[in-house]
Amino acid sequence: MSPATAAQPPALPAAADTMMHRETHEAIDAVAHQLARNDEVIGKLVKMLHKYPPRFVVTCARGSSDHAATFAKYVFETQLGLVTASASPSVSSIYGSRQKLDGVLYLAISQSGKSPDIVNHAKAARRAGARVVALVNVKESPLAEVAHMVLPLLAGDERSVAATKSYICSLSAILHLASRWKDDSELTEALAAVPEQMRAAWDLDWSPLVDGLVDVRNMFVVGRGFGLAAAQEAALKFKETCGLHAEGFSAAEVKHGPMTLVGPALPVGAVRHPACTPLVEMLSFYKAVNALAVRRGRNPDAPPHLNKVTSTV
Question: Which of 91, 135, 178, 218 could join 109 via S-S bond, C-beta 3.0 to 4.6 A?
Answer without folding.
Answer: 135
